[in-house]
Amino acid sequence: MKQSRITNTLLPWHELLHKTCRELGWSPHTFWQATPKELEMALNPPGHQNTHSLSRSTLNDLLRQFPDEQEPHHHDG
């Protein structure tokens, strides 16, 4: 029976697990309990510029396109 290798192109799980266990001293359990945001924060040095961050103009465009819905005001009385 031929073994197949499953690969995930979205996140390099094997590399992330290796890096956190070897370089940060995490246990596999700690790794699998971490959120993607926690992984990002642990693996990037303080002050690291996230190239995937939104610019202010992009954020403003999104806020205009998708405004928060206003809830109706209820008056007691």
Automatic annotation (TrEMBL):
InterPro entries membership: Phage_TAC_6
Disordered: region residues: 42-77
Biased composition (Basic and acidic residues): 66-77
Start-end of Polar residues biased regions: 47-60
Protein name: Phage tail assembly chaperone protein, TAC
Taxonomic classification: Bacteria, Pseudomonadati, Pseudomonadota, Alphaproteobacteria, Hyphomicrobiales
